[in-house]
TrEMBL record:
This is FBD domain-containing protein. It comes from the Eukaryota. Residues 216-287 form the FBD domain. It comes from Microthlaspi erraticum. Pfam families: FBD (PF08387), LRR_At5g56370 (PF24758).
Amino acid sequence: MKLEHNVYGSDACLESLISSCPVLEDLSLVRMVTDHLKVVRVCSQTLTRFNVDYMFGEDDDYVDDYEKQGSGVFVDAPRLEYVKWQDDMSESKVLTNPASLAKVNLVYVFNESDVADVVDLPRRNMVRNFFTSISRVSDMKISGSTVEFFCYNVEHDPWPKFRNLSCLKVTFTLLTLDMMTKLLKSFPNLKHLILVLDFDHPSEDNELIRLSSVPRCLVSSLECVEIKYFSGGPAKMEVARYFVENSAFLKKLVLHFRCSMLQEGFNILMDLLALPRRSSQCRIIVC
């Protein structure tokens, strides 16, 4: 069932509609500011896939703090296997009974307004409980905005350990790239990492960075790293160097090249092949 840009009589109206579908497996809910919903409750014994999205129209005003008060998305679906979350406007986000959850895509969940200070225990507990509820998944995508939230929040509340996670796709900007090693500490058994390096302007890619600390997954489990939008600038070359020189069991470094000239690409490749490799099995693959 796909419910897109609808207006509801009340919160109970939507809750009743969902609960009246006794064999519902896949639900996509695309909300808008004027949908008249304060609290979204999804209770289903059969649901396996759920997507929640919060869209803004051109004429919609921003949602102020008063309008957000008491708002929330509450999901109780014990057979849920996949969640795509694109709503960071609701005040509360709660997943209960996620025992079957295996894959999540965190596009927009929290933003800087959700960063709680030390004394804001209810907000801190809500954020901590959300990440704890998804911590048993095996496959996860993390958007750049979610990484930004991690940067804001990590000092107060580090993420829990995702010990079952084997595949991770994550987007970094140049401003958040220095947090990569801290983020990877949350995934001690990671095997496959896909990095989207979302910066291409020469003034950004020529920035000098240095990655040093080595999280557990690099020395115990990581086998494949893919780097999207690889152009060979100093920042992206540093990321490639970091994984080649520090990953003990790395089998493949896959680089999705973005360069304008054949000679430039050849020179970048020669620099990469010259890097010392900690893993004797490591192959560098260029796409």
